[in-house]
């Protein structure tokens, strides 16, 4: 449920913006769109380590259960947005931030609870199921968002309410602590420098993607530069503080464990590649392929989710199996093989023409999903099996931070690469194409100067930007019927953007393949394939580490 809400909004954005009566392509509104996508990921990236540490101190189940209540409360408020326009968007962004707080409490502690509850020979399968649930939520959200948004945009938030209410009650009645909480105190300076530093870097991404001072992107914006520099300095200060404090937020000694360090680095690389690929595929399908194949712009979000089902199916098939195999064969070989297959699928996608045959595309994204499943479960098992029981909460939070930060950073990296590719040829192609259809030169030049980021978001939102931009000028009314039909039809904009977009795709997928092969190298460096022999939670606490079932009994 927590992971699903990170992606469900991607597909539902067109319906959400229509619902709050906000023009997503107006220059001042691009920030709302970016924060609707990134705000949730940013909060999860920043908070998971802190709430993981709180779980180590005060009880992982206690923090986990509270997360259900917070997440459900925010979901209720999200579905009753009383405002329109910018105020309506701010309402949604603010309550999604609170929803992300609850999601962080769930994400950070779930893997630690399972690691406490299961013996080492079953841990890979248990953590594999957990990781499959998280990433499957991300993939399934793409389909569910399209289905629910076709009914009512508020339904993408309603779907959480009955699930959240039921499992909030279930969790408080059923779950019991199986590990021993360590007590201690909160490292306030560490938490502050980490949260503010990482937030600053991720917020800078939102500035970098918006046009600034005549440039197609905002990486020269003083605010973006200041946030990146300031954020990195605060993160450096965080490391210095953690080395000196007696109760650190993060045990830096964990990074002496090869399985922990290289497992997290491999996970970060795969997360960046997976998150960026998700955005690029949605834009490719919604903005070009589906309109060229006769789908109306209004219907493309739903069908994009449906046509990406092989990606979800591949992941769901491979995830549990790889978790089970990692208990028997070790983690390193499976995770490394998954990363290599992940990179190979990028190379295959890079070789596809812009107007591809669907079944080839389906096979490639299914292989990508299988590769993600092969990698995710063994990698999680390796990371969590390498840390002592008393630090499993913070270790789980750190693992989630690498994953969520990678997804957030991927938006900036992949969009920047794509925008740079479009900026070279899209304005000229758009201007000349409009003039050929009778649009006056001055109007065509004005529309052609549309920032490439707006064209990308138009494609993602299932909007025909040509019709959208020509309507205010009244030019359409002075053109012939044939010219109007061409400009506002399904093929004009996709045909114009196809060439520049394909150039950007090659760069983006090549970068994704490089990330995957770097992840494979990091995975190989993690050490032996089997997780390290760490004591169980029960042996450290002097108690029984077996999971407690309803009624207080334990599983033998």
3D structure, described in words:
With 556 residues, the chain is an all-alpha fold. Helices cover 75% and strands 0% of the residues. The protein has 21 helices and no strands. It has helices at 4-19, 30-58, 60-78, 85-117, 120-151, 155-158, 160-174, 188-208, 222-244, 258-292, 300-307, 309-329, 332-351, 358-385, 392-436, 441-448, 452-460, 465-470, 481-488, 492-524, 537-541. The longest helix is centred in the C-terminal third of the chain and has 45 residues, at 392-436. The chain is globular, with a radius of gyration of 24 Å. Mean pLDDT is 80; it is low at 529-556.
Structure summary:
The chain has 21 helices and no strands. The chain has about 550 residues and is mainly alpha-helical.
Overall outline: globular
Strand content: under 5%
The low-confidence parts are 529-556
Order of helices and strands: HHHHHHHHHHHHHHHHHHHHH
Task: Please estimate the helix content.
Answer: over 70%
Supply the number of helical segments: 21
Average pLDDT rating: 80
Distance between the ends = 30 Å
Computed CA radius of gyration, to the nearest angstrom: 24 Å
Number of strands: 0
Sheet with the most strands? none
